[in-house]
Design a protein that fits this description.
Helix content is about 30%, strand content about 25%. It is an alpha/beta fold and about 270 residues long. A five-stranded mixed beta sheet has the order 1-5-12-13-14, sandwiched between helices. It has a three-stranded antiparallel beta sheet with strand order 4-10-6. Helix 8 links the parallel strand 12 and strand 13.
Amino acid sequence: MKKPDLLYKYRIWDERNTQDSYQNRLLINNEIYLSSANQFNDPFDSSTPFQYQKKDLKKRKIYKKLCWMLKLQNPTLSNFEIHQICKKRLYSGFYKDENYIKEYYENYIKSINEEFGIFSLSKSKSNLLMWSHYSDSHKGYCIGFDHKMLLSISGSLGSVIYSNSFPKLSLFPKSEALDFLKLLRTKSKEWEYEEEYRIVLRGKSRKTIHFTDECIREVILGCNMSEINKNDIIKIVQKKNSSIRIFETKISLKKYELEITEINTPSLVGI
Protein backbone atom coordinates (compact mmCIF):
# COMPACT_ATOMS: atom_id res chain seq x y z
CA MET A 1 0.00 0.00 0.00
CA LYS A 2 1.37 3.39 -1.02
CA LYS A 3 2.04 5.68 1.93
CA PRO A 4 0.45 9.14 1.83
CA ASP A 5 2.86 12.03 1.16
CA LEU A 6 1.98 13.64 4.49
CA LEU A 7 1.18 12.13 7.86
CA TYR A 8 -0.40 14.13 10.66
CA LYS A 9 0.11 14.43 14.40
CA TYR A 10 -2.70 15.96 16.44
CA ARG A 11 -1.52 17.90 19.49
CA ILE A 12 -2.69 20.05 22.38
CA TRP A 13 -1.15 23.53 22.65
CA ASP A 14 -0.19 24.15 26.27
CA GLU A 15 -0.23 27.91 26.84
CA ARG A 16 0.79 27.63 30.51
CA ASN A 17 4.41 26.71 29.86
CA THR A 18 5.14 27.32 26.21
CA GLN A 19 8.87 26.56 26.16
CA ASP A 20 9.09 23.48 28.36
CA SER A 21 5.73 21.74 28.05
CA TYR A 22 6.10 18.26 26.54
CA GLN A 23 2.97 19.02 24.52
CA ASN A 24 4.71 21.93 22.80
CA ARG A 25 8.17 20.44 22.35
CA LEU A 26 7.10 18.72 19.13
CA LEU A 27 6.75 22.09 17.39
CA ILE A 28 9.18 24.25 19.35
CA ASN A 29 12.10 21.82 19.77
CA ASN A 30 11.45 19.47 16.82
CA GLU A 31 11.22 16.67 19.33
CA ILE A 32 9.33 13.41 18.82
CA TYR A 33 8.44 11.61 22.04
CA LEU A 34 8.20 7.84 21.66
CA SER A 35 5.55 6.58 24.08
CA SER A 36 5.55 3.31 25.96
CA ALA A 37 2.58 1.08 25.11
CA ASN A 38 1.21 1.35 28.65
CA GLN A 39 0.73 5.11 28.13
CA PHE A 40 -1.96 4.54 25.49
CA ASN A 41 -5.69 4.87 26.13
CA ASP A 42 -6.48 1.47 24.57
CA PRO A 43 -5.58 -1.37 27.03
CA PHE A 44 -5.14 -3.80 24.11
CA ASP A 45 -2.80 -1.50 22.20
CA SER A 46 0.57 -3.25 21.71
CA SER A 47 -0.48 -5.60 24.53
CA THR A 48 -2.53 -8.02 22.45
CA PRO A 49 -2.53 -11.59 23.76
CA PHE A 50 -1.36 -12.96 20.40
CA GLN A 51 -2.02 -16.47 19.17
CA TYR A 52 0.02 -18.85 17.03
CA GLN A 53 -1.39 -20.30 13.85
CA LYS A 54 -3.24 -23.54 14.58
CA LYS A 55 -1.29 -25.50 11.96
CA ASP A 56 1.93 -24.74 13.87
CA LEU A 57 0.74 -26.06 17.21
CA LYS A 58 2.06 -29.58 16.68
CA LYS A 59 4.44 -31.16 19.18
CA ARG A 60 7.31 -31.54 16.73
CA LYS A 61 7.05 -27.88 15.69
CA ILE A 62 6.79 -26.68 19.29
CA TYR A 63 9.81 -28.82 20.14
CA LYS A 64 11.81 -27.32 17.28
CA LYS A 65 10.83 -23.80 18.41
CA LEU A 66 11.83 -24.57 22.01
CA CYS A 67 15.26 -25.77 20.89
CA TRP A 68 15.79 -22.66 18.77
CA MET A 69 14.77 -20.30 21.60
CA LEU A 70 16.86 -22.10 24.22
CA LYS A 71 19.95 -22.06 21.99
CA LEU A 72 19.44 -18.36 21.37
CA GLN A 73 19.11 -17.60 25.09
CA ASN A 74 21.87 -19.99 26.21
CA PRO A 75 24.51 -20.28 23.45
CA THR A 76 26.94 -22.16 25.74
CA LEU A 77 24.62 -25.18 26.15
CA SER A 78 25.51 -28.30 24.16
CA ASN A 79 23.01 -29.77 21.70
CA PHE A 80 22.54 -32.74 24.05
CA GLU A 81 21.67 -30.42 26.97
CA ILE A 82 19.28 -28.40 24.82
CA HIS A 83 17.42 -31.50 23.68
CA GLN A 84 17.19 -32.88 27.21
CA ILE A 85 15.72 -29.64 28.58
CA CYS A 86 13.29 -29.24 25.67
CA LYS A 87 12.04 -32.82 25.93
CA LYS A 88 11.34 -32.32 29.62
CA ARG A 89 9.49 -29.07 28.97
CA LEU A 90 7.48 -30.42 26.08
CA TYR A 91 6.23 -33.54 27.84
CA SER A 92 5.37 -31.57 30.97
CA GLY A 93 2.62 -29.91 28.92
CA PHE A 94 3.89 -26.45 29.99
CA TYR A 95 2.55 -24.75 26.87
CA LYS A 96 -1.02 -25.69 27.84
CA ASP A 97 -0.68 -24.64 31.47
CA GLU A 98 -2.69 -21.49 32.28
CA ASN A 99 -0.17 -20.25 34.86
CA TYR A 100 2.66 -20.55 32.33
CA ILE A 101 0.62 -18.74 29.67
CA LYS A 102 -0.24 -15.95 32.14
CA GLU A 103 3.40 -15.57 33.23
CA TYR A 104 4.64 -15.62 29.63
CA TYR A 105 2.10 -12.94 28.66
CA GLU A 106 3.02 -10.72 31.64
CA ASN A 107 6.75 -10.95 30.81
CA TYR A 108 5.99 -10.22 27.18
CA ILE A 109 4.01 -7.07 28.11
CA LYS A 110 6.77 -5.92 30.48
CA SER A 111 9.32 -6.34 27.70
CA ILE A 112 7.16 -4.35 25.25
CA ASN A 113 6.70 -1.48 27.71
CA GLU A 114 10.38 -1.30 28.62
CA GLU A 115 11.87 -1.63 25.15
CA PHE A 116 9.65 -0.24 22.41
CA GLY A 117 8.91 3.42 21.77
CA ILE A 118 5.93 4.28 19.56
CA PHE A 119 4.95 7.49 17.78
CA SER A 120 1.48 7.56 16.23
CA LEU A 121 0.31 9.61 13.27
CA SER A 122 -2.74 9.73 11.00
CA LYS A 123 -3.20 10.03 7.24
CA SER A 124 -6.13 12.42 7.87
CA LYS A 125 -5.95 16.08 8.88
CA SER A 126 -9.71 16.72 8.99
CA ASN A 127 -11.03 13.91 11.20
CA LEU A 128 -13.56 15.40 13.63
CA LEU A 129 -13.01 12.72 16.27
CA MET A 130 -9.23 13.03 16.11
CA TRP A 131 -9.46 16.79 16.57
CA SER A 132 -11.79 16.24 19.52
CA HIS A 133 -9.82 13.46 21.24
CA TYR A 134 -6.21 14.48 20.62
CA SER A 135 -6.31 18.23 20.03
CA ASP A 136 -8.20 19.43 23.08
CA SER A 137 -11.65 19.60 21.43
CA HIS A 138 -10.31 21.56 18.44
CA LYS A 139 -8.39 24.04 20.64
CA GLY A 140 -5.11 22.42 19.63
CA TYR A 141 -3.24 22.02 16.36
CA CYS A 142 -2.02 19.44 13.87
CA ILE A 143 1.38 19.03 12.18
CA GLY A 144 1.74 17.55 8.70
CA PHE A 145 5.02 15.63 8.34
CA ASP A 146 6.75 14.55 5.15
CA HIS A 147 6.58 10.77 5.51
CA LYS A 148 9.84 10.19 3.58
CA MET A 149 11.71 12.51 5.92
CA LEU A 150 10.24 10.73 8.94
CA LEU A 151 11.30 7.38 7.50
CA SER A 152 14.83 8.67 6.93
CA ILE A 153 15.27 9.67 10.59
CA SER A 154 13.51 6.69 12.15
CA GLY A 155 13.96 3.81 9.70
CA SER A 156 10.58 2.47 10.79
CA LEU A 157 7.17 3.62 9.62
CA GLY A 158 4.13 1.49 8.83
CA SER A 159 0.34 1.49 8.78
CA VAL A 160 -1.75 -0.01 11.57
CA ILE A 161 -3.77 -3.16 10.82
CA TYR A 162 -7.35 -3.10 12.11
CA SER A 163 -8.95 -6.43 12.97
CA ASN A 164 -11.82 -8.00 14.91
CA SER A 165 -9.57 -10.84 16.11
CA PHE A 166 -6.13 -11.14 17.70
CA PRO A 167 -3.20 -11.51 15.29
CA LYS A 168 -1.98 -15.04 14.61
CA LEU A 169 1.75 -15.54 14.29
CA SER A 170 3.86 -18.26 12.79
CA LEU A 171 6.20 -20.30 15.00
CA PHE A 172 8.78 -19.93 12.23
CA PRO A 173 8.22 -16.57 10.53
CA LYS A 174 10.32 -15.47 7.57
CA SER A 175 11.24 -12.42 9.65
CA GLU A 176 11.01 -12.32 13.46
CA ALA A 177 11.19 -8.51 13.35
CA LEU A 178 8.28 -8.17 10.91
CA ASP A 179 6.20 -10.65 12.91
CA PHE A 180 6.85 -8.66 16.06
CA LEU A 181 5.96 -5.38 14.35
CA LYS A 182 2.65 -6.98 13.37
CA LEU A 183 1.81 -7.21 17.08
CA LEU A 184 2.69 -3.58 17.69
CA ARG A 185 0.70 -2.41 14.67
CA THR A 186 -2.54 -4.37 15.13
CA LYS A 187 -5.56 -2.76 16.79
CA SER A 188 -9.28 -3.37 17.12
CA LYS A 189 -11.45 -2.30 14.19
CA GLU A 190 -13.14 0.16 16.54
CA TRP A 191 -10.07 2.40 16.07
CA GLU A 192 -10.15 2.22 12.28
CA TYR A 193 -11.35 5.82 11.96
CA GLU A 194 -7.90 6.99 13.09
CA GLU A 195 -6.21 5.76 9.87
CA GLU A 196 -3.04 5.38 11.89
CA TYR A 197 0.61 5.01 10.94
CA ARG A 198 3.35 4.25 13.46
CA ILE A 199 7.03 4.70 14.05
CA VAL A 200 8.20 1.81 16.27
CA LEU A 201 11.76 1.83 17.65
CA ARG A 202 13.42 -0.73 19.89
CA GLY A 203 15.34 0.68 22.85
CA LYS A 204 13.48 4.00 22.65
CA SER A 205 10.59 3.56 25.10
CA ARG A 206 9.79 6.98 26.65
CA LYS A 207 12.72 8.54 24.81
CA THR A 208 12.92 11.25 22.16
CA ILE A 209 14.34 11.66 18.67
CA HIS A 210 14.80 14.93 16.81
CA PHE A 211 13.94 16.04 13.29
CA THR A 212 14.82 18.99 11.08
CA ASP A 213 12.48 21.84 10.12
CA GLU A 214 12.28 20.32 6.63
CA CYS A 215 10.26 17.40 8.04
CA ILE A 216 7.34 19.76 8.68
CA ARG A 217 5.28 20.61 5.61
CA GLU A 218 2.05 21.90 7.18
CA VAL A 219 0.68 23.26 10.45
CA ILE A 220 -3.12 23.32 10.90
CA LEU A 221 -4.76 25.36 13.67
CA GLY A 222 -7.95 24.12 15.34
CA CYS A 223 -11.24 25.94 14.85
CA ASN A 224 -11.59 26.57 18.63
CA MET A 225 -8.02 27.74 19.19
CA SER A 226 -7.69 31.20 20.76
CA GLU A 227 -6.31 34.05 18.67
CA ILE A 228 -3.41 34.43 21.13
CA ASN A 229 -2.37 30.79 20.70
CA LYS A 230 -2.76 31.00 16.91
CA ASN A 231 -0.44 33.99 16.84
CA ASP A 232 2.11 32.26 19.08
CA ILE A 233 2.21 29.21 16.80
CA ILE A 234 2.41 31.30 13.63
CA LYS A 235 5.40 33.21 15.05
CA ILE A 236 7.18 29.93 15.84
CA VAL A 237 6.50 28.49 12.38
CA GLN A 238 7.60 31.65 10.57
CA LYS A 239 10.98 31.49 12.34
CA LYS A 240 11.48 27.88 11.24
CA ASN A 241 11.07 27.59 7.52
CA SER A 242 9.31 29.77 4.98
CA SER A 243 8.15 26.70 3.03
CA ILE A 244 5.91 25.46 5.89
CA ARG A 245 2.29 26.13 4.97
CA ILE A 246 -0.08 27.29 7.72
CA PHE A 247 -3.79 26.47 7.68
CA GLU A 248 -6.75 26.93 9.98
CA THR A 249 -9.92 24.89 10.28
CA LYS A 250 -13.43 26.28 10.26
CA ILE A 251 -16.82 24.65 10.80
CA SER A 252 -18.65 24.05 7.52
CA LEU A 253 -22.07 25.73 7.24
CA LYS A 254 -23.25 23.06 4.79
CA LYS A 255 -22.37 19.66 6.32
CA TYR A 256 -20.71 17.89 9.24
CA GLU A 257 -17.12 18.51 8.29
CA LEU A 258 -14.21 20.89 8.70
CA GLU A 259 -13.13 23.37 6.07
CA ILE A 260 -9.37 23.87 5.94
CA THR A 261 -8.12 27.21 4.61
CA GLU A 262 -4.56 28.36 4.10
CA ILE A 263 -3.38 31.47 5.92
CA ASN A 264 -1.56 33.22 3.11
CA THR A 265 -0.79 36.56 4.69
CA PRO A 266 2.43 36.95 6.68
CA SER A 267 0.57 39.17 9.17
CA LEU A 268 -0.67 37.63 12.38
CA VAL A 269 -4.20 36.42 13.01
CA GLY A 270 -6.57 38.95 14.55
CA ILE A 271 -4.28 41.94 13.95
